[in-house]
Design a protein that fits this description.
The protein is of the alpha+beta class and 84 residues long. It has one domain. It has three helices and four strands; from the N terminus they run ααββββα. The protein has a four-stranded antiparallel β-sheet, with helices on one face.
């Protein structure tokens, strides 16, 4: 499946983070930067806001977004069950 997504991106020339970057840069104080490993991310005053997951266990093109732990708990409670 990951190979299919990579092939589709190669055909369209679309980077997985391009849309996130374009939208994020319309917000006040957001800057496009890169991590030490070269992966793209968005920051505000040097603090991480969003980026692509880089851990080997992450699915390709997984977006990581900074949030408060309480918000994460609420969002996970409302998330659909991935096994159905």
């Amino acid at each position: 499946m990951a190979g299919i997504r990579a092939e589709a991106r190669a055909q369209t020339g679309v980077n997985a983070f391009d849309r996130v970057r374009r939208i994020g840069l319309t917000l006040a104080g957001v800057e496009a930067t890169t991590r030490y490993d070269g992966s793209p991310r968005l920051t505000v005053r040097g603090c991480f806001v969003a980026g692509l997951a880089t851990h080997v266990s992450a699915d390709a093109d997984t977006l990581v977004v900074r949030m408060e732990p309480d918000e994460r708990t609420l969002l996970l409670a409302d998330a659909p069950d991935p096994t159905t």
